[in-house]
Structure prediction request, 201 residues.
Amino acid sequence: MKKNNNKTERKACRKKELRRYIQDKRDNLSLKEREKRSKEAAKKFISTKYYIKAKSILIYYPFRSEIDTTIIIKDALSKDKKIILPKVDNNELSLYFVNDISVQLKKGNYCIMEPVPSLCRCAKVTDIDLAVMPGVCFDKSLNRLGYGGGFYDKLLSYLPNRVKKISLCFDIQVLSKNIPTSKNDKKIDILITESTIYYSN
Prediction:
C-alpha cells in the first residue's frame, strides 16, 4: 500500500512540475505571437466538419496566456450557433448558454470570466454537440493535463460518446513523450495547434 502511495505522490509531483514548466513557456510568448498563433489554430478549428455541423458548442473563456478562444466564440455566435460556457459551482461545472460575452460574464473563481447565472439560461450536458476542452499540456496520444482541479475530467465522463472532445493549444504545449496520467484522466478526440491537427487512432 505504501509503495502505491509513493508512486501516486511521484506522479502528482511530476504533473505539478510539468504544469509549471509548460505554463512558463506559454507565458513567455509575446502577446503578438499569442494572437498570431491563436488565429491560426482557430482557423483550423473553424474549418473542421465537427464545428461546421455543431449547433451548440461547449467552450471556455481564455485565461491568462491561454489560446484566445474568443475568436471561436464570436465566429460561432455570428453563425447563429449556441455557445455554452462553464461556471465553477461547488467543485463542479455548471453550464450556461451565453450570447453576449461583453454583458453576461464576470470574473468568478480563479479570476476566470464566467457566466452570470441571472443573465443566462441554464444548459445541460445533453445540449452539447461539440466540446472544446482546456488544458495545460497534451501529448500526441491525446492525453490531456489540466490545471489540477479535475473539473473537466469529471465533465468529460458525463459527455455522450457522440460528442467530439477537441482541445486547442500552442505547439509548445504538445509533448513528444507521454504525459503522466491516472485512471481519472480522460483523453480528448482531437488536438489542434497553430500548425497541426492530431486525431485519435
User: Anything to note?
Assistant: The chain has one domain: 2-199. The longest strand covers residues 82-89.
